[in-house]
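for the record, two folds in this file. i put them one after another cuz i was lazy. first one right below, seq on top, structure tokens after. the second one comes after a little note so u can tell where it starts
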Amino acid sequence: MSIREYLLTACRDDARRAGERNRLLLEARRARRASRHRPEPTAPASAAPVRWLARLISAALPPLSHPGPTTFNSRSNAGVSRIK
């Protein structure tokens, strides 16, 4: 076997091994993706009991009485000096 023939077969073997390695890596990636379990979003399901509880509490409490608008009292501003 000449050096040229040896190099040609070595290149073919390397290409065959590289193809096999790429195929195995691709299979491993696909298997990892398939086994990775992504949980579904649970925000709407968990928010429903919270809303229900808020409605229950707000229905049981008496309505809040809002005080009227506050009036401005100029005498309460002790730190403010008046210009005459």
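(here's the note) second protein begins now
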Amino acid sequence: MPAVMTAPMRSCALLLWLPAMVPAQVPAAPTFARDIAPIVYGSCTPCHRPGTSAPFVLLGYDDVMKKRKQIVEVTQQKRMPPWLPVLGDFEDDRRLAPAAIELLRLWDEAGAPRGEPADEPKVPQFPAGWQLREPDLVVRAEQIAVPAAGPDRFRNLVIPVDAGCLRFVEAVEIRPGSRAVHHAILGTDPTRESRRLDALDAEPGFPGMSLGGGGPPDGHFLGWTPGKRVRRCAPGMAWRLWPGHDLVLQLHLVPTGKPETLRCEIGLYFTDVPTAIEPVMLALFSEQIDIAPGVPDFVLRDHVDVPVPITVHAIYPHAHYVCRRMRGFATLPDQTQRVLFAIDAWDFDWQDDYRFREPVALPAGTRIAIEYVYDNSEGNPNRPGPVRRVQFGQQSTDEMGTLTLSVTTGNRAQRLLLERAATLRDLEKVPAAWNVWLKLARIERERGEVAAALAAARRAHDIDPGLGQPWLELGLCHELSGQVAEAVRCYEEALRRDPALGLAHVQLGGIEARGGHPEAAIVHFEQALLSHPNMPVLHHNLAVACFTLGRLDVAETHARRALELDEHYFNAQFLLGRVLAKAGKKDEARAALKRAEAMRPGDAAVAQALRDLDR
């Protein structure tokens, strides 16, 4: 009896504990409304919308449904959204999470179900105008035409700016105005070199990948790429737009299949907070690029040792079409290595600058280095045209390899030491570059190392004896060391080689003024104004010379002009008060001196001038 009852009981137990008998729950297929729309609207639509350079829009289910195969392909390959670094903690990282990439694939495999339309998030709205607000100043480049077909082009447009006075720029927005603009870089030019290059070309601007005399203002990267957000500088880190400086806008132009006519706009946002922190541009590069046809793994390396503590705020890696991989790293004094960034699939068409979420502090003695790998074989899909020898050069069909870092130091002395170390490293690579020797001369002079500055300026002269700039630097060094007669000779030699070198006239005028010869000083200052019409110190010095001779109307005009150009210029404000007082305009003089007192509270000379007014 017990044996008969045992089997059914075992059978019941088996039925109770067999998990395979419980139906498995099948996950629901992703839907556009619930899963895909948030991904697309957050990561794709900001570029793929009307009025941008994207080739199509993604504004709703129908748009995404039509392009779903392409979306899956480019996201699986991580070509979209465009974001090159695979290492580096940067702001505005556009990469999709692996789970989002997989959701897109699964949605396509499931037949792209829409889901419940009521569950769909609203299509995002984007500002029709400027991203921040109406800019304080809008400037427009010359109109330029792009043919329907043909090769990519690089064009540098020179844009004179009349901001009225020294401005502190906290944000910039570039609006390209056409899909034909792939990306843009913006610099400022304190010289007239970019204008000279523009005048040599019949079309607007000038060609090539060099900004002429332009460069990043006060160590800031400025540019535009699709989807780039406009950000304000931190207080005290705005860059200075000086009167008379030009903007230089470099455009990468890509034919779109139809003729395009465009006119780029640049919106500038000003702040009243003066520039207190000026980043340094630290550049690594190598011109030793000579890659034979078929070579798949040419390696470029460079490094610089930093002699002071620095903080890295942003980086801008750059190469052309043959480059495939990039690494930038810092080796600390204890030999610990920190990767600053890594790019495994470089794409020249999607180059950008990258700002760290948290600035990277590096101690003195750190070595910053780059390692770039180039593939000049048939296996590189980005290589333009047939395989051929590729060498260093400025054209896009040549090659380059640079990493520019925007860094800050603790004080001016550290800044000069860093600039000196970087310049000496540059001279190891390009010892025949007269302009780099001249840069070293300027740094050594500012450090008070006059002998070293003179040696560097003489080296620049020896490389190209026909130049005027080395003679100007020699004059500055001699004047600093008290050798006035030799300084005058050097300034005159500078003008003999380059009559348009207005800074030599500025210095000669100052020497004449201090020597008690205001008439001769005025002649030099007026000559200098022909090439430097917007230099505040020049207007101030001319006003002083005229004031000395009793030419009060002219002195007042130039003192006011100096203040129009730089409203924070104490010496010009104080001089204006003295000029007005001597002209008998007591109320205006008092107001001017009160403004000077506010600029420099407790100044004894201002206090005495105010007391003199009340006598």
